[in-house]
């Protein structure tokens, strides 16, 4: 899929905003956005919707695990997932897996909800929070 100029501008603006908010983590941000650009830039012609959907799920898992490995804050994770939950990004994913469009939106909304409102105890039990986020993705793998 080709990342259109409007989406590219949106992603670059968000990347710059995140880099400005977290100046010590620009390398991590570059890596996360590289993963996002990779998944958005793949050629999905001829692939089934389920295969495209599973590629997205794998990418989200990689992003979550990478951010946890870097031991970054809840605020950083929230910034990344709010950006991913924007309609421009969701529509780009959904256009390549039309039969899974509702699942993609629901999944991203649940992850954003987890990282913004219901995710308590980040500092107390990071592993539990990571497991919960991965469990959300694994659940969507199986439906």
What is the residue-averaged pLDDT?
82
Portion of residues in helices? over 70%
Shape: globular
**Most strands sheet:** none
CA-based gyration radius:
15 Å
Number of domains: 1
Query: How many beta strands in the DSSP annotation?
Result: 0
First-residue to last-residue Cα separation: 24 Å
Strand content: under 5%
Helix-strand pattern, N to C?
A: HHHHHHH
- What is the number of helices? 7
* Alpha-beta classification: mainly alpha
In the predicted model, the low-confidence regions spanning at least 5 consecutive residues are none
Kindly describe this structure.
With 143 residues, the protein is an all-alpha fold. The protein has one domain. Helices cover 76% and strands 0% of the residues. It has helices at 5-21, 26-41, 49-69, 74-84, 87-95, 101-118, 126-141. Helix 1 (5-21) packs antiparallel against helix 2, helix 4 (74-84) packs antiparallel against helix 6 (101-118) and helix 6 runs antiparallel to helix 7 (126-141). 25% of the residues are buried. The model has no long low-confidence stretch (mean pLDDT 82).
List keywords for this structure.
143 residues, mainly alpha
């Amino acid at each position: 899929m080709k990342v259109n100029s409007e989406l590219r501008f949106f992603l670059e603006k968000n990347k710059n905003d995140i880099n400005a908010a977290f100046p010590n983590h620009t390398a991590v941000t570059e890596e996360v956005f590289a993963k996002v650009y990779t998944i958005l830039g793949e050629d999905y012609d001829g692939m089934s919707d389920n295969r495209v959907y599973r590629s997205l799920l794998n990418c989200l898992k990689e992003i979550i695990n990478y951010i946890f490995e870097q031991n970054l804050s809840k605020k950083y994770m929230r910034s990344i997932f709010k950006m991913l939950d924007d309609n421009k990004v969701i529509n780009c994913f959904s256009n390549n897996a039309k039969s899974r469009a509702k699942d993609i939106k629901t999944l991203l909304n649940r992850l954003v909800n987890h990282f913004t409102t219901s995710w308590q105890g980040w500092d107390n039990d990071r592993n539990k929070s990571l497991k919960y986020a991965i469990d959300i993705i694994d659940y969507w793998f199986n439906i």
